[in-house]
Design goal:
This protein is α+β, with helices and mostly antiparallel strands and 275 residues long. It has eight helices and five strands. It is a single-pass membrane protein.
Amino acid sequence: MAALPKRRPRRGNTSSSSPGWMTTLADMFMLLMTFFILMLSFSSMDAEKYRAMVTSLVEAFNMAPDRMPEPQGLADEDTESPAISEDVPIPMDGAPAAPSEGDAMLRDQASAEPARPDVHPGVEQLASMLISEMEDAVSEEQIDVGFDRQRVVIRFNDEATFPVGSAELIPDIRPVVDDIVDIVARCDGEVIVTGHTDNRPIVSDRYRSNWDLSAARAASLVHELVLNRAIPAENVVAAGRAETRPIADNDTPEGREKNRRVEIEIYEPDCDTGS
């Protein structure tokens, strides 16, 4: 009788468990996914983008939906963000906020307040000199002086500076202009002289429009600034803005009077303290 073949002993069944390296790889993927989710939780993206990205990770790794983590530390859309420091223009006394751009004006405090770190060093220095040395002109409202982070602004009252519809300086304002030139000449910096008008059309044989008048008034002041090279001509610019930069409401006589003005802006002045 033929002998039956001997059966080989069975080896361990490998179908019931996965190789060890697959378990290690799965753990590594889980750790990587957790790391990326933590990184996302500290980012500033909104919740919808967060959930979309987490969902894609879940689908990639075949995680159960009930294990998808909820976003933590993300800013709610309705929650106010921390305030960011910005330059907020401060209008001069009596003037409403400008529709387009304002002038940050600080009048009497300029000489008393210490220099602030966000203000160019020469700005408060020049503003203080102007306010202290031009006290009479400021008190009589012939001019107004103020500053913001990068510039000093000298604003001339239209009624005290030019006749109606003219670009010729009123004789009484010339000494004031001369004193301003003496002070500004102590500092280096870009000087921009800008003429402004109200929104009423001009009726003149000499000037075609408010653009012509505002530019001519700016040029009149520029001539005084660069006379005898007191201020280098290459540092000075004349500009006419017509009615495009109002600082008050043009619907009232008072507002139109405020809008008719000429401004001298000195940017980032570097002043000679020995003068």
